[in-house]
Amino acid sequence: MTGQVLALFGAVLTLLAAVGVVRFPDVLARMHALTKASTLGVVLVLVGAAVTLDNPNDVTSLLLAAALQVLTMPVGANLLSRATWRAGQETRSGLTADSQEGVV
Amino acid sequence: MTAAAFVVLALAAVGFGYRLVAGPSLTDRVVGVDGLLVVGVSALAVQAMQTGEGAFLPVAVVATLVGFVSTGIVARFIEGAGQ
After folding, report:
1. Mind listing the pLDDT tens digit for each residue in B11-70?
2. Pick from B1, B79, B2: nearest CA to B44
3. Which of A10, A21, A39, B77 has a CA positioned 20 to 30 A from the CA of residue A47?
4. Is B70 exposed, middle or buried (0-12, 13-18, 19+ CB in 10 A)?
């Protein structure tokens, strides 16, 4: 029961990330919505399943997947946002100051 | 309750699929694919919880790793295309 509540909460967080990805006005804002909300969402779903299941193989797979999500989602988002910032000019149109000038 | 989780994940997949199809830039499409991958991993976990059998759970680990590597590769591609 606890695991199912955790999984439902994680699914709702993923849905909130999807709403942000659809509605936010900027590329970097959309990436921020996806990475922040859905990292916690998928970890909650995986931990909920790990609480529910009792086979050690399944629990190990779920916890490994959760740890890899936590480790790789911020790194991938950092790579992608830095590449987008370097390549495109359109993401800077709504900004008044560029604090990353000469840094990124 | 797992059925409700499936419905919520399907709604999230619709949103990510809209961004994948309609995204104006390549980064938007990568964001859409990443979101669909997150939804797929979550759906695998919810399915294992529903049936009580985790035969597909190593697929979640592999999908996470493949998603990270593909995001890095597309990031390198975007960076090279802007110069």
Report:
1. 999 999 999 999 788 889 999 999 999 999 999 999 999 998 888 999 999 999 999 999
2. B2
3. A21
4. middle
- Crossing angle of helices A27-52 and A56-87, in 10° steps, is 180
Q: Is the pTM of this model over 0.90?
A: no
Q: Which residues contact B12 (CB under 8 A, 6 or more apart)?
A: A11, A14, A15, A17, A18, B35, B39
Global ipTM: 0.89
Contact B5 A34 (CB under 8 A): no
Say how many CB pairs under 8 Å bridge A and B. 176
Chain B positions in Cβ-Cβ contact with residue A18 (cut-off 8 Å):
11-16, 35
Q: Where along chain B do its domains lie?
A: 2-81
Rg (CA), chain B: 15
Of A12, A58, A75, the CB nearest to B8: A12
B27: contact with A, CB 8 A cutoff: yes
Domain residue spans of chain A:
2-86
Nearest CA-CA distance, residue B55 and chain A, Å: 8
